Amino acid sequence: MTARTFNQPLGGNEMPRFGGPATMMRLPAAGTAEGLDACFVGIPMDIGTSNRPGTRLGPRQIRDESRMIRPYNMATGAAPFARMQVADIGDVPINTFDLKKSVEIIADHYRGILAHGAVPLTLGGDHTLTWPILRAMREVHGPVALIHVDAHADINDEMFGEKVAHGCPFRRAWEEDCLRNDKVFQIGLRATGYAPDDFDWGRRNGWTVVQAEACWYQSLKPLMAQVRETIGNAPCYLSFDIDSLDPAFAPGTGTVEPGGLTTWQAYEIVRGCAGLNLVGCDLVEVSPPYDPSGNTALIAANLLYEMLCVLPDRRA
């Protein structure tokens, strides 16, 4: 039997960090997800945003800031490139003039990824994109458990009279029966709203809503133990909006809210997903024009790597 050879990120001693391919972690590029266990894919979109734009530039900047990430996780011992075939399969060719059409393009693109059996790790892009991904997920896995990390609940029925926007994806996913309501967690919600229903709508539907104030000064390891116990072996999707972090850590986003999570709490959340049956993840709402230092995209790149590290071992 021939041992399987896995793709590896281009190392810093083979090519200076500021050179090499402009892919996630300087991995090999691939045209499709065929033969891959997991893949990085970008959705360069900001036509669903309601405040500051710029997330169409997020995937490219996240890739650029990923060049310092090395293949071995010193904290957890994870070595994802020793057990998985991973590549960067580029970007979804959205229609930048038509948000509704882009939703259909995204859903169809992810059907193709899932048909190859690969787990997609998505670089966003505004949060509208999670709805069509969940639509494709439902066709393969049925309704999924959800861990949604965000400053906002994103359950608006409409925005400016439109049903499709970055404040609506989880209302649309709920309407299409994409979610297992008893296994939905929203973490980090905060700031101001129009009425209590902004957060309570999810609670009424059986979702667990953990507001940011409940996370202040706390380790989130106990919370993630509860999440793992509740979700069990159900197929699970992780959607991480970078504005869940306090703007002191991640100012480069369109709808910043003070009083958010810390970077170490973000790591606890993602690392706390180890053992779950993750079928996909996304990191959304990075807006490079508001990220002059690159720190927001740098954090996003590292969180995407951490997501790769906790994907289930599929070699069996």
Write the layout of secondary structure elements.
Elements: E1 38-43, H1 58-65, E2 86-91, H2 99-115, E3 119-124, H3 130-141, E4 144-149, H4 169-175, E5 179-189, H5 197-204, E6 208-211, H6 221-231, E7 235-241, H7 263-271, E8 277-284, H8 295-309
Parallel strand pairs: 1-2, 1-3, 3-8, 4-5, 4-7, 5-6, 7-8
Helix pairs in contact: 1-8, 2-3, 3-4, 7-8
User: What percentage of residues falls in helices of 4 or more residues?
Assistant: 25-40%
Average of per-residue pLDDT values: 96
Q: In terms of structural class, how would the helical and strand content be classed?
A: alpha/beta
Q: How many strand elements? A: 8
CATH structural fold name = Arginase, Chain A
**How far is the first residue's CA from the last residue's CA?**
16 Å
- Which series of helices and strands comes N to C? EHEHEHEHEHEHEHEH
CATH architecture label name? 3-Layer(aba) Sandwich
- Count of domains: 1
The largest beta-sheet arranges its strands as 2-1-3-8-7-4-5-6
Major sheet summary line = 8 strands, parallel
Q: Give the C-alpha Rg.
A: 18 Å
Number of helices: 8
Low-confidence stretches: none
Plain-language structure description:
- This protein is an alpha/beta fold and 316 residues long.
- The chain has a single domain, classed as Ureohydrolase domain (Arginase, Chain A).
- It contains eight helices and eight strands; from the N terminus they run E-H-E-H-E-H-E-H-E-H-E-H-E-H-E-H.
- The protein has an eight-stranded parallel beta sheet, sandwiched between helices.
- Strand 7, helix 7 and strand 8 form a beta-alpha-beta unit.
- The longest helix is centred in the middle third of the chain and has 17 residues.
- It is globular, with a radius of gyration of 18 Å.
- The two termini are 16 Å apart.
